[in-house]
Amino acid sequence: MENMCREDLMKLIQSTNFIVIELAMYLDTHPECPCGLSAYEDYSSMLQQAVAIYERKFEPLTIYNVENNGSWDYVQSPWPWQKGCDC
Amino acid sequence: METNSDVNPFDEEVRAEANEKLTADSCMKCEQQCNDCMRPGGLCDNRPCGFGPNYRPGMNPGMRPNMRPNMRPGFRPNKKPVGPCGARPCGGRPGMRPDGRLPEGWRPSDGMRSNSLGSDSELHSEWNCKNRMIQDAQGRSMIIGCEGQTMSGCHMNDPMDRLGDAFPPVMAFVPWQQWGDLYEPECGLKQGTIFKDLNYIFCGTRC
Lengths: 87, 207
Hints:
- The complex is a heterodimer of chains A (87) and B (207).
- Chain A has 87 residues and is mostly helical.
- Chain A has one domain (6-81).
- Chain A has helices at 6-29, 34-57.
- Chain A binds chain B through residues 11-12, 14-16, 18-19, 22-23, 26, 29-30, 32-36, 38-39, 43, and chain B through 39-41, 44-45, 49-50, 52-53, 177, 179, 182, 185-186, 188-189, 193-195.
């Protein structure tokens, strides 16, 4: 994951984020399913790891993780319509 | 609760065909990947995955604890014709059988043909039903009667209201989801769901 390029890492974050949301909805109605809980734990951990790597190597993904280095880094990164991601 | 068997749009045959088509058309690559990371789906705490604490031995998928033994989960209908897109009833209208006949318990009013529901212009609120008995899972029952009265009142010009009793409300029973195979993340995002069991071919039409 550390060696992934920007585009691949962004795709991984998007798809893993989708899985986490799907599993969360499943667990809303199956809160005691061990398989669902295990899968959620795995993918949630993977997502957090991917987000941490992306934000450390490239730019913040949300406004909650912007490091104050004397400028507002969040607005410096390309927006989706500037081909900031493959979407 | 009496459940309308026509609510469930897929039977096992159609579902198998849909899964087979999905596998063949779009997901052959990730199918192998998913199989590689398949998680154990066996018994968990002496009950199958997806069943809650009310699970009783012998309970079938989709069966609720208060169901009568002779009730089939999902109330799957008998085999019906499969539409050209592989699912049924393709293009069908709610409340109407694929062959155009009225739902059971419904009768056309005088002068109406029972198989003439082919277009919107032939649908109106003159459909009346006889008194019917509805029954819930505990065996409680009541007699309900209805007559079309939708052409009068403040909604008489509402296009949906003009359809009247041809579209009776139903109480849907959604079978309990069981844990199954998952798609790989990229494939799941593409398909719109990570659960292979939920990946149906959408064949609905707009009203």
